[in-house]
Specification:
The complex is a heterodimer of chains A (290) and B (357).
Chain A (H helix, E strand, L loop, with lengths): L1 H8 L2 H30 L3 H10 L1 H34 L5 H8 L1 H4 L2 H12 L6 H6 L8 H12 L1 H13 L3 H8 L4 H30 L2 H7 L9 H10 L3 H46 L1
Helix pairs in contact in A: 2-15, 3-15, 4-9, 4-10, 4-12, 7-9, 7-13, 9-12, 9-13, 10-12, 11-12, 12-15, 14-15
Chain B lengths: L2 E10 L2 E11 L4 E5 L6 H9 L11 E4 L2 E2 L5 H4 L1 E4 L11 H10 L9 H14 L15 H14 L4 E5 L7 H18 L3 E5 L2 H7 L2 E6 L2 E6 L1 H6 L4 H6 L4 E8 L2 E4 L2 E4 L10 E6 L4 E4 L7 E10 L4 E8 L4 E7 H7 L6 E6 L3 E4 L4
Parallel strand pairs in B: 3-8, 3-9, 6-7, 7-8
Antiparallel strand pairs in B: 1-2, 1-4, 4-5, 9-10, 11-12, 11-14, 12-13, 14-20, 15-19, 16-17, 16-19, 17-18
Classes of the chains: A mainly alpha (290), B alpha+beta (357).
């Protein structure tokens, strides 16, 4: 409301200027690059575009990315639910420290995240000799990629859920328990439905990051073609080899993923807003009537 | 189904919420737990419900109809619990909310869906909200939500009904209506009920017995009449409604409050012992001339006649503010105006010695 009133009182030229600067900026820095990706990918024709995906290395990169996201996202979903449940519904010492730690992956550079795993599980790392002795390969192998991805993406679900779960206090759960519901029934019928949109939203963001992660994965992957290359890593390799059409073809898949994520995000955000507003309404009304 | 709480203590960190409370609610009674916030009333209710545990190193026990339920979980105790902020399941319709307690039962105990439907319809009828069955809680008013919450609690055919400030979140008008409705409902279904409130008017109006709590202990319990008319301490007297308080002392067997000299029956109190006089606003009267009764000279500062009673504010010669309430009929005989000097006489009063409760 305020913004509208402000907008009307401002001169017309200022409004036009602000809008055109924004549009121009978005066009140059976001839309144009995105368009370039698709144009470059299709430069040699549709046939060449699809041919890029028949390359075994490209295919293996796509599969590895799907596998990584397929493991990392469910793990972080469970972890995010548990962490936010613990933080929102219980009081314990060190709670604020835990909330801060959950944000750690956002704060550190992904390269550091990758290096940490190399230091821990690499040949010269803490567990290196033991792992070597048992012929378990983590670094320069798929497990390392999954671990690094999980590290980088684990805040997404928890961060979406914590504020919502804190907003919705524990009364509904207590009500369910007093009505005879078991812990699992309470979770499945009361807690989960109340947070489902936030949960999906977190999962979508988590998935996008898991598939797109470059830095952390790059450090632990070893770039072995057909074995430890994820899609972003594969794009880089193809690009460095001046194989632009193929590089952009794979990149276009990631771009499509980004678009799909954006659409899903928009839809979920509106659902989430309604949910949050309902929660706030109840809370506020309670306060007012009190 | 009676409720008994024996020697219940509860400590949160360093805060002692309950200090060895003993409470008995007889079968079919509606008892109000009354007290200011922090007096432990809600904690006691939650312990009875099984939503909170007693301190582990105490011998506290909860008995339902003589059966010890201390060790059983909330879901096994079969209590109906009504929360201050309704706690309705926001993702379910009114119908599904009420049916919840029946649907989560283990399969062998779960009624058939058709039986559940009949039961829910019955309860909807009871709370007069039949047409709202397909609505979601967010589409209901506060009063409607609390009625749904009550129906949901009754659906599991609870052995006892526990209500935690059930009307606390409602506006005054809805609160009054719902209070009376709850009392009528209780008279119909006679379920043993314990109601927590900080509103003395509510407790006095709906309850068969009132239990006044203070600092984790029971201060007094009795019928609403007993608690209101025979408070056993200053705290209860003060908590039960507006009072005028006068400070004075005992002198040769009499209680002296400035110009007021009253008989004090309690023998053996040394002279000079501090005493306090508690008088409810309606236990004071006003006259233009001294009429022989013990009285205080005062000046009228404010007359408020909009309301069921006329409220008169006065200031005594020593500067103390006094409140007097009287029916309009009596006020018409005594019409006084601000700035007028009058005599305030006592119709009734209670004297408490200092350091006594």
């Amino acid at each position: 409301m305020k913004a509208n009133a402000l907008g009307r009182s401002d001169p017309r030229w200022l409004r036009a200027l602000l809008i055109s600067v924004t549009v121009l900026f978005l066009g140059v820095f976001l839309f144009l690059p995105l368009l370039t990706v698709f144009l470059e990918a299709l430069r040699k024709g549709v046939a060449a575009y699809f041919a890029s995906f028949t390359d075994p290395d490209a295919r293996s990169a796509v599969l590895l990315t799907l596998l990584t996201a397929g493991i990392a996202v469910p793990c972080n979903l469970v972890f995010g639910l548990l962490a936010s449940w613990a933080i929102a519904k219980f009081e314990f010492k060190g709670k604020s420290l835990l909330i801060t730690l959950i944000d750690l992956p956002f704060a550190v550079s992904p390269v550091i995240a990758g290096l940490v795993y190399v230091l821990m599980f690499g040949a010269q790392g803490w567990f290196g000799p033991w792992l070597e002795g048992h012929r378990i390969h983590i670094i320069f192998a798929v497990p390392g990629i999954v671990l690094a991805t999980m590290f980088v993406t684990f805040p997404f679900v928890a961060r979406e859920l914590i504020p919502l779960m804190q907003e919705q206090d524990t009364d509904e759960e207590y009500a369910a328990i007093s009505l005879g519901a078991s812990g699992w029934q309470t979770f499945r019928r009361v807690t989960l439905p109340n947070v489902k949109w936030a949960l999906l939203y977190g999962v979508v963001l988590c998935n996008a990051r898991a598939m797109g992660e470059f830095g952390a994965v790059s450090v632990v992957s070893g770039h072995i073609r057909g074995l430890t290359n994820t899609m972003p890593l594969h794009v880089e390799i193809l690009y460095n080899e001046y194989n632009f059409a193929a590089a952009f073809a794979v990149a276009s898949l990631l771009a499509l993923l980004a678009l799909a994520t954006l659409i899903a995000k928009t839809v979920l955000e509106s659902r989430l807003q309604t949910g949050l507003r309902a929660a706030e309404d109840v809370a506020q009304e309670a306060v007012h009537e009190y | 189904m009676s409720i008994e709480a024996c020697n219940i203590s509860k400590t949160f960190g360093s805060f002692r919420a309950l200090r060895g409370v003993n409470l008995k609610v007889n079968d079919g009674q509606l008892v109000a737990l009354l007290g200011p916030s922090g007096s432990g009333k809600t904690t006691l209710l939650r312990i009875i419900a099984g939503l909170e545990e007693t301190d582990p190193d105490t011998s506290g026990a909860i008995l339902f109809h003589g059966e010890n339920v201390t060790g059983s979980r909330a879901g096994q105790r079969r209590v109906g619990f009504v929360f201050q902020h309704y706690a309705l399941f926001r993702n379910m319709t009114v119908f599904d909310n009420i049916a919840f307690g029946l649907r989560v039962r283990p399969r062998r105990l779960r009624p058939k869906e058709s039986e559940i439907r009949t039961k829910v319809e019955e309860l909807l009828h009871l709370i007069h909200l039949r047409e709202l069955a397909p609505r979601f809680p967010s589409q209901l008013s506060g009063g409607q939500r609390q009625r749904v919450a009550l129906a949901r609690a009754l659906a599991i055919e609870p052995r006892v009904l526990l209500l935690d400030e059930p009307f606390g979140a409602l506006d005054a008008k809805v609160r009054h209506g719902l209070r009376r409705w709850l009392r009528r409902l209780h008279d119909e279904i006679h379920i043993t009920s314990l109601l927590v409130t900080h509103d003395q008017e509510e407790a006095l109006e709906v309850a068969d017995r009132v239990v006044v709590m203070r600092d984790g202990r029971i201060e007094q319990e009795g019928t609403p009449e007993e608690v209101y008319h025979h408070p056993n301490s200053e705290f209860v007297m003060d908590f039960m409604g507006n009072v005028n308080l006068f400070h004075g002392r005992i002198e040769s067997g009499k209680a002296v409050f400035g110009s007021l000299v009253l008989d004090h029956a309690e023998a053996g109190v040394p002279d000079g012992h501090g005493a306090r006089l508690f008088v409810r606003p309606f236990e004071l009267d006003i006259s233009r001339q001294p009429n022989g009764l013990p009285s205080i000279k005062a000046r009228v500062t404010r007359v408020q006649s909009a309301g069921a009673q006329v409220r008169i504010e006065l200031s005594s010669e020593s500067g103390q503010t006094m409140h007097v309430e009287m029916p309009h009929s009596r006020f018409r005989e005594r019409t006084v105006a601000p700035q007028e000097d009058v005599y305030v006489t006592l119709l009734d009063s209670r004297i408490f010695l200092e350091n006594q409760g």
